[in-house]
Amino acid sequence: MPRTNADIQITHHLPSDDHLRQAVNVYYLAFAQKMHHLEFFPRSVEQAQRVLGQVFLPESGFFALYQGEVVGVVGMRRRHHGRFLNFTWPILRAEFGLWGGAWRSAWQSITHFRRPAHDDEIRIEGVAVAERLRGQGVGSLLMNAVCDHARSHGCRTIVLEVVNTNPRAQELYERLGFVITKSEWYGPITARAGFTGATYMRKTLEPSR
User: What is the pTM of this model?
Assistant: First the structure.
């Protein structure tokens, strides 16, 4: 386990294909249930990870490395910029066929209509930390990197949503200065994906000095 935060390196890019595979694995393990039952409905673990490896946009994320291995991922989105997981039609068609790709593409458009409302807003699309390093400050380092990135690009707010089955994540965001803006109840609609509601949160950034 890392002794201090200095043992964790935060980077804006993935140094190699092996690091990409590690990042995919960390992200998949954190969101597997949601991916299989709500996001893009892969037919197997292997297919899910293969698709993720194609749709990751590292420039829209930050990655935590410990002893040279990816142990944390945060994806983000700005207005007029691509999503962290960029599900393009060619990728979906190649993986799922014409019909399977078509309805998954339509589903992506429906379920991801939420975009940053303003040019100076960043939306967090997902935070994942390797299970063995949870509670070691990795999530805080990733979120602080997003805040620094936002300030350097003239962004004033960061928004995110956290599901009601992940109270530890909500506690982390509250410690980092995020405040609740609203909560929604989905009930059985999202139950198979591992949650029945979500809380929406926002952080207003202080200008850089």
Answer: 0.93
